[in-house]
Amino acid sequence: MKDIFKAPFVEEMKKMTANMYRLGWDERNGGNISWMLDEEEVGEYLDLSQVIRTIPIGFEAKELIGKIFIVTGTGKYFKNVMDDPETNLGIFKIAADGCTAELLWGYKDGGKFTSELPAHLMSHMARLSVDPENRVVMHTHPTYTLAMNYVHELDEKKFTHSLWEMCTECIVVFPDGIGVLPWMLCGTNSIGEATAEKMKEFRLVVWGMHGIYGAGKSLDETFGLIETVEKAAQIYILTAHLPRVNTIKDSEMKELAEYFGVNYRKDFLNL
Fold first, then answer.
1. Catalytic site includes residue 252
2. Can you tell me the distance from the alpha carbon of 34 to that of 153, in angstroms, rounded to the nearest whole number?
3. I want to staple 17 with a disulfide (CB 3.0 to 4.6 A). Which of 81, 133, 166, 262 is the partner?
């Protein structure tokens, strides 16, 4: 077996969590990441028949039976993943009953996956139904995106449109727009179900007065989606109180989207 501590998926999780903590998006134990791994690759580092313990996941995820995930732990700080990945991360397989996680590595202090796991797994199932290459779900609390929640209507079209106006790249990076949920109690199946429903339509979902969920094919792609939203939200917050002299017109956003060949939400433009 190869050294699990040198596995690319462990290394990438270490670097990503450290960077997100550095940016101030994941204070204390805020934020969580789940990444569906390739079984063959994981098998080079772990004996997949050796289950350390089983952990109920809190709902039935039949579509994910046999899938392997690396997931941040509950109550764990992103800043500590780099120095102690085996305590702060876990790798598990969804058992044949669809209701249990079979721990293969990690959570060595007796811990378990993030309390937001239902929202993550439900989002994985929703995204896989529309994009079979989806592998990552990321939840974080980016500062300016969160600030924008308090001064902007939590309306999907209006919220997306305001962000598209902030940076030329926005309609190209997230042409499908942003789903928006009102404030809901976190860590519950209810918010997971609501998020998953939005994930059938959007790769990004704002949790009102809480943070954002992003989904993608890789850690980099998913982070890049959220990073672009955060940059646009920062520009919005820095300029919202000032008179608007210039803006990107809807006709120009349409021109951008069509030039780059992205499938954008035409109903989110005012044309």
1. no
2. 29
3. 81
- Tell me the average pLDDT of the chain: 97
- Catalytic choice (116, 165, 221, 227): 116
pLDDT in tens, 167-196: 999 999 999 999 999 999 998 999 999 999
Query: What gap in Å lies between CA 133 and CA 218, rounded to an integer?
Result: 9
Fold of 116-271: L-fuculose-1-phosphate Aldolase (3.40.225)
Q: What is the pTM of this model?
A: 0.95
Q: What is the pLDDT of residue 153?
A: 97
- CA 87 to chain centroid, in Å, comes to 21
Determine the pLDDT at residue 267.
Answer: 97
Residue 32's pLDDT is what? 97
Do the domains at 1-114 and 116-271 have one common CATH topology?
Answer: yes
Domain parsing of the chain, residue ranges: 1-114, 116-271
